Amino acid sequence: MEKPTIYIVIPCYNEAECIKETTKRLSEKLSHLISQNKVKKTSKVVYVDDGSKDKTWELIENISSSNKTFIGIKLSRNRGHQNALLAGLMYAKEHADAVVSMDADLQDDINAIDKMLDKFAEGYEIIYGVRSERKKDSFFKRHTAQSFYKVMNALGVEVIYNAADYRLMSKRALDELANYKEVNLFLRGIVPLIGLKWTTVEYKRDKRFAGESKYPLKKMLNFAWDGISSFSVKPLRLVLTLGIIVFMISLFFLVYIFVQYLCGNTVDGWAFLSCSIWIVGGLEMACIGLIGEYIGKIYAESKHRPKYCIEEITDVKNQK
Question: Which of 1, 185, 198, 261 is placed for a possible disulfide with 126 were both Cys, Cβ 3.0 to 4.6 Å?
Fold first, then answer.
């Protein structure tokens, strides 16, 4: 197989503390891959600025003007990690044979790119970077992350265990990805749906080089819910099942109360009745809210709004 041109796509949001070190390490990595005849000299790194509020874009402009290996894409506003990543992937697929996506915080081991390229040379179209261990995570994060993958699989969402957005995709795979038009993006669930030949490579994930995590607990829970509600209707079926169970229980108590009435027993039951009303009312509100979430997603999809707007590309500016 002829050596490929690869692009490395990195979404960035307020990564001013990391980006210089990330640039240094990726520049060294690309130089090494080129010297080893694994990739062509036309290979590049693409930074996608997702509406950062710090000096991230200013740094990207400086980097790309001094080193033509690096390209900067600036989105017009913050659109979220998944949309920023998609913007970079869709740009890169027009110029590369394969595209590697990773985060800017240097937690992903860049040396795993070598193994990904070896698998790509063997004919694999999608290669997932999979964490070999989670020893460096806190107890809470380790167990919530493992629960996330188990719940997703239990609800019928096909995700690769311990894989995030560190992966290599061929141009063919990216062309197929472009056919998925949903607004509610969950790439960890969409990419496995493509169905082309895939495999995994293991790597050890390091601690964040600098700065703060862009995925606190609240954001992680929202991300998990987006994945579940975008790919599975099982929560709606659970609501239906719960409704049937509550209805059957209410019928049982209705028969019980009627029998007690016929037997002449007087039962106060005010506390029980009040609790029942609150419980059933709470369940109804939760079920309506769940259905509303799905309706909201349908509403968002029906508008067909663009997922992102590119304000500027340094590569285009440098060519003028």
Answer: 198
